[in-house]
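Iron complex transport system substrate-binding protein
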Amino acid sequence: MTRLIALCGLFFAATAVATPVTVVDDAGRTVTLPRPAHRIVSLAPNITDALFAAGAGAYVVGTSRFSDHPDEAKKVPVVGDATMIDLERIVGLKPDIVVVWKSGNSAAQVEKLTRLGIPVFYSETTRLAQVASTTRQLGRLAGTDDIANRNARAFEAELDRLRTTFAGKKHLKVFFQIWDRPLMTVGRAQIIDDALVLCGGDNIFADLDQAAPTVGREAVLARNPDVILSGGGEGESLNAWKASSFLGAVKHDNVFAIDAPTLALPSPSILPGVATLCRALDDARTRAGR
């Protein structure tokens, strides 16, 4: 009898593991796997971060360059970046699924993966509210729904807290500089645009569709931002703006860099960066008398 019970237990465990998984990805494709994915390759740092938040970190067998969040991700072998992937190495990892960045990874490279018969899941997160749903999607793929749902709820709760804290603040026109040569900023497809809105900032280039558009210096001057800032590493290059003394940002000493290395990361690790941004804009309001 004991042997029969043990065999039945093994049968039901095997049946549970083999349960098919179906998830709709961010390209609108229905992706079905014969069982939860326990060998996952991530081709973007934000996807890697979201996989760990979804409880699937132990199943990540390959990542992309710059996958630094969380710290455990640094231990996973790197198999490519946004422009080039090591197909031979990925094939050798025998992944159950490769999760790709819909607008960031090379379409030609991804097509090569599909031609090799490797299942691909497209992920695209451009708004803060999508971070939790992405976490849940990936948890479903990996069969780690409980952890994914718990962490997604925690993210939503903290996001709501930030929205409540900074709701009703006086709005400031913001130019967010991500590079100076060429001069680049954030458009509405970049999650930083959404973070600015939450913090009471109006991105002066929110009318541009691109995530990271190139703009002219004259266009910035014409829109006369109240704040000119960067997310770190661009502090010195911001100094050139101080020569334009007529700018509101210059008049009120609101040209500065913030220490927010995860602010451009559309994944769970973004929230500390959003909080830093909100506090910085609050200080800018004080200096501007708002």
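thats it. The longest helix spans residues 145-166. DSSP finds eleven helices and twelve strands in the chain. bye
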